[in-house]
Write a structure and sequence with these properties.
It comes from Streptomyces sp. 900105245. By secondary structure, the chain is mostly helical. It is about 60% helix and about 0% strand.
């Protein structure tokens, strides 16, 4: 419900007891806080757009990257030229898996280091790109299907239930 609808509803309420008066006052204060926070959010959006425009970046043209995420990326990275290549950037964000191999066992584990806030932004961008289609979704589908068999249909199989193959 919007703040205006809540204010319209409150005008029709006539408190009867002292408790009702107190509840009405609390509701008015909460409504004033809601309006203030809404104003601050809108002002913040304008400031972020202006800051992004001042950098003359093309980040917001990427799918899945809006004003807020672009501002977070620019805030955490600053000048991208400080990273010699994409590998250094990936290491900084903590998005590169760590080698956990031993002997002939080649394994990798999750990297819990790096800039976790920036890693979270990259994750949100990836989720949006996978959800909305395009190159990100194509890449994701290619990666999850690589080296795996097609999934079996749901339900009992002849491996799980010997009677399934005989039809009885």
């Amino acid at each position: 419900m919007s703040a205006d609808k809540a204010a319209a509803l409150m005008k029709g309420i006539r408190p009867v007891t002292a408790t009702d008066n107190y509840r009405r006052d609390i509701a008015r204060h909460l409504l004033a806080d809601l309006r203030r926070l809404d104003r601050q959010g809108k002002d913040n959006q304008v400031k972020m757009r202006e800051a992004i425009a001042a950098t003359r970046t093309t980040l917001t043209t990427l799918p899945g990257l809006g004003t807020v995420l672009a501002a977070k990326v620019l805030g955490h990275i600053g000048d991208i030229s400080r990273f010699p290549n994409e590998h250094h950037f990936a290491s900084y964000t903590g998005s590169v898996p760590l080698d956990a191999s031993s002997g002939n066992n080649v394994r990798h584990r999750l990297n819990t280091g790096g800039n976790r806030a920036l890693n979270s932004v990259l994750h949100n961008i990836a989720v949006c790109q996978i959800r909305d289609g395009g190159r990100g979704q194509d890449y994701y589908l290619r990666k999850i299907s690589k080296g795996r068999r097609h999934p079996k249909p749901a339900g009992p199989s002849s491996d799980a239930c010997p009677t399934w193959s005989t039809g009885s």
